[in-house]
Amino acid sequence: MQVEKTKARNSFDSVVRFTLMGLCCLALLLSASTVTSLAEDEAGQTEDSVSQSEPTPDGQSDSSRKYQWLFRQKTPELPAAEPETSTLLEPLDREIKLARKLYLSGETENAILKYRNAVDQFESILEDIPPGHGLLAEMEQRFVIFDELATKVLGPVHVDPKEELSGGIFHVLERRRTCRRNLTLKKAGPIRYFDAANSLLTDEADILRKIIQLKAEGPSHANRQAEAALRTALADTRKKLLKGTPHYSALRTGNHVSLAELCKDILRKHEMILDFSLFSDRIVVGVITTDRAIYYQVAANRAEIDKGVFHLQEKLKEFNLGSRATFMGHAWKEAGRRIYRNLLGRIPRLPSDKTTVFVIPDRSLWYLPFSVMLDSEDRPFGSDRLISLLASADVLKLTRTSPGAQPAGFNGELLLFESIPWIAEEEVKEPVGASGRKKPAVQKMSEEQRIEHLVLSNPVYPKASEIVILIQRMFAKFDVWVGPTATMDRFREYKDRGDDVAILAVPAAMTDGVVPDRQPCFFFSPDSKGRRQFAAKELFNLPLGSRLLIVPVSWFDVPDKESALGEGPLLFATAIHYAGIRMGMINYSDPNWGSDEPFLSSILKNAAQKVPVTQVFGSYTREIPAGLDASFSGKPPAWTGWILMGDPGL
């Protein structure tokens, strides 16, 4: 019985095993059948979709009409459109993006190296853009990489950089300044230089435009060959341009100066440089003397500093605008105290033995008369020191190392142009009608419109003003042109004359931004063809060689007073330096230049007596009191609005 039970159990196990094997085989067969049917269904759907996607007679498929966002239709075979010029900047954009990514990941040192590469690319691209080209606007948008590099080198805003880092910081900031200058010169459009052949400048610009066009067309064998040929021609043209043109070569290639060289070989014992840089989150001030150089940084809102500068200018101007005067003589003092506190009030006290201070301004600081700033004791910043603006440190080096750069006296020669219509403001207003009722009032004019209206309403000035007669009597030799004779054609005739003192008492408009058709300019009397607008960039082709240029009647045009660039004053300062003018004086706050007779007389009298230049500008500081009485009221002193540019040591 036991044997029979064992056989039965084995037989049952066999049946179960065979049954399980059969079920497994069946499952595999069903799975294969399902996969096959799915594949066939997908194939059928693909064929259906292809057949449904066939274009209809109007050129579009049903599916593309209904689900246009799902499909990428093949573009028709048409001539390739010219790509945007921004594609030329893609390598630069990739470098900038990588630098920012490295910094955000905590790799500060590697990020700084990458930023330096990006700056190298920026300068190389800018060099190969012709003047006035539309690509310059996109370069302006990317100029912020200089700010990013500088702030990374400076470190956290709440920590002052170590003194041993000053050399590297100065190098970065000086490079930022020279690139801003080069960008501004390009944005001004084609410029003629008195020592460079205009035909070569035109050839260079044409070659650069052709190279940009080839790059925009995309890579190809033919384009690469054409670009190589153009690059060879470009190198030859630039070689000819730089040959025998010392002024143009220095401006074009730059005149590199290190911080050690600046302190040891260029600055003098009584001189100091204040190197200002305005960034979005901080203000940086470098104090550079022959003994040491150190940089300070303070957290600040750049827009607030910009507003403070223009608020001070408004307070200085309101006494010269007739009915707009508030008769609050102390109003300008509060603005002067505030801007001093924002710029210098939070850094250690400056050396007291430096009687000449060179200020390297940034952005809105070009419009600031630094002498008028008041410290905590109401002492004007310019009461015991002469303050002059410089575009960059390399300008000072070039000025002092160029031939004939030794201190000398004036020779008593004067060149003066005056084209200011002396018309009372009441005469400009609408006259009273025959019925005795006034005509409807006109809209309120801006200061620029008001001066321009005065000029246009009386282009023929009958006689010289009293201050012109007074100044003319001081000089033994003089050329004075007033009224209808004060034309820009007459002004151009004084090329290479070298008159010591040149006074342009004609309206000067200082635009903040620079583009080919809008930039700083002077308004002379109309010439025989009705032309009267003389752009500041034309000074590059007019070597005056004067020791002092005085521009007493000017206004600035800054559309956005919370984000000023300062390109206009930078272009003007660069132009007068290139024209061989050692010092410039400009006034934005007092369009009635005759009111400054005592102040100007003290300076011009010394110049007429052929005294050394340093003594002439020494009288500038003597006109500024050591302190202001708290009860002072009335019109601000005449010296408050003047801004000096250049090197008073020559």
Alpha carbon gap, first and last residue: 135 Å
The global form is: globular
Major sheet characteristics: 6 strands, mixed
Query: CATH class of the largest domain, anyone?
Result: Alpha Beta
Q: What is the mean predicted local confidence, pLDDT?
A: 79
Instruction: Provide the gyration radius in Å.
Output: 36 Å
CATH architecture field of the largest domain: 3-Layer(aba) Sandwich
| CATH topology value of the largest domain | Rossmann fold
| pLDDT < 50 stretches | 34-84, 322-327, 422-442, 457-462
Query: What is the helix fraction of residues, given as a range?
Result: 40-55%
Q: Give the spatial strand order of the biggest sheet.
A: 7-6-8-12-14-15
Report the portion of residues in β strands.
5-15%
Q: Supply the number of helical segments.
A: 21
Strand-pairing-aware structural class? alpha/beta
Total number of strands? 15
**Tally of structural domains:** 3
Task: List the SSEs and their pairings.
Layout: H1 2-52, H2 62-66, H3 90-104, H4 108-127, H5 135-142, H6 144-154, H7 166-187, H8 198-217, H9 221-242, H10 246-253, H11 259-266, E1 271-278, E2 282-288, E3 293-299, H12 302-317, H13 331-343, E4 356-360, E5 386-389, H14 393-401, E6 413-418, H15 425-428, H16 447-457, H17 466-474, E7 477-482, H18 488-492, E8 501-505, E9 508-511, E10 521-523, E11 533-535, E12 548-551, E13 554-557, H19 567-578, E14 583-587, H20 597-608, H21 613-622, E15 642-646
Parallel strand pairs: 1-4, 4-5, 6-7, 6-8, 8-12, 9-13, 12-14
Antiparallel strand pairs: 1-2, 2-3, 9-10, 10-11, 14-15
Helix pairs in contact: 3-4, 4-6, 6-7, 7-19, 8-9, 12-13, 17-20, 20-21
